[in-house]
Design goal:
By secondary structure, the protein is α/β, with parallel strands linked by helices. The protein contains five helices and five strands. Strand 2, helix 4 and strand 3 form a beta-alpha-beta unit. The longest helix has 13 residues.
Length: about 140
Amino acid sequence: MIEDKHRWNKRFVDFPQPSYPTPILEKYLELANVGNALDIACGLGRNSTFLAKKGFEVDAVDFSDYALSQIEDLENINKIEVDLDSYELEKNRYDLIINANYLNRRFFPQIKEAMKKDALLVFETFIIAHGDFEQL
């Protein structure tokens, strides 16, 4: 686990994320009720910071202590350092959940249960496959 943390920390140092929020979040944010938000695998916090500045109470969740340390210290961002392979989402808590460029299928049922009635889910993952399709 320590090796994984070092790998992720190095990745964030060597390949910083953009500072602007993911465009799909900006596009659909107006559909969300302002309230509690969850940013799964938040990285350097571009989406967490954006949401906090829009009035959301944000749980910014990531495995990298380095990435979390780089997120702007705003009173409505709760930085949570966890191993995402074992983290459990709280049920019926969130008005908005953002999951950008991270795929952990075990979260699918938990995401559904973590959403309040009328919550918004913004989910963006990779659409370009790397490798040979013939092997699939």
